[in-house]
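notes to self, project folder thing:

trying the whole complex as one job this time. last attempt i did each chain seperately and stitching them together was a nightmare. two parts in total, labels are on each line so i dont mix them up again. if this works i'll redo the older ones the same way
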Amino acid sequence: MQPDPPRFTRRNEFLSGCRDELPILLGVVPFGMIYGLLALSAGLTPGIAQSMSSVVFAGSAQFIAAQLIHERTPGGVIVLTVLVVNLRHALYSASVAPYLRPLGQGWKAGLAYLLTDEAYAVAITRYLRDNGKTVVSPYRHWYFLGAGLTLWLSWQWSTAVGIFVGARVPASWSLDFTLALTFIALVVPSLKDRAGAAAAVTAGALAVAGAALPYKLGLPLAGLGGVLVGLGIESLRAEATGEGRPA
Amino acid sequence: MSYLPALVAAGVLTFLTRLSFIALLGRFELPPLAARALRFVPPAVLSAIIFPELVLRGGELQLGWRNARLLAGLVAALVAWRTRNVFLTIAVGMAALWGLQAVLSG
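result (full assembly):
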């Protein structure tokens, strides 16, 4: 697309990671403020509410944990619930792992800590965009770091604003919807073949069907179902065309 | 502060979940089937987050034209498909949502 090959530097990668994370913040920042407000009204101390944002660093799990603390749930149950709600991150981990393979332990641990839904969505989109290119940047982990750190900082300060200032975006603005819109913006252009589209539609339909399941279990199950359907269709088409491995 | 140990444990387990495959992949090869499956993880998981957001209102399935989020989401999908622009998709999607909410409640 570009006439000149792009210049690959750590700085450029880091900054474009930060930039590509920005649209998502429209959804994340109100979410963080609401979390801060809800956590306090659920009876958490400001210290606990804020430290959960850096120690757990996972939006929906934090909302659930705050609710459980409000209900005086035993600590062990809270730990188990957060673990189950965050199991989908193991899928993300498997998904980015091949790209992080050459990195040292420190980088792996740091990027794993930053591997939330929103950072994953931006980082994996970048990695998949690079697939098939002859020359890829050797500094793509800096892109991941930029995206992840931008999200992390925004989550911390928006939690703090929710806790201490009590500022609130009126619910009638429906700004939470920007999160769904961001995911649409990332998924739709990535659907390049029938198998990928079938995986997406299957997972979406299963998630709707399983929305009432406890602990958000519908989400990982729907994801698994979508992946299986995608694989099945890919195999069928590969057989039909007689190719060993489809592109 | 009695919940602090539970939160630290929850945080450590979340971190280990995220680290799991990233740390292990250096030690063993991913089976070819698993590598093929990984390609489908992003569209599947993200769609599993998007769909309920669009068609469920308070736990009820709403597929009709009175569901402003569903219509705005479809408009956004069209914009995303044609332009591949994240900001434009969000801007048009939010404008569609606000417009539809005003029309449908009026």
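what i see at first glance: The helical segments of chain B are 4-24, 32-38, 41-55, 68-83, 86-105.
need to look closer tmrw
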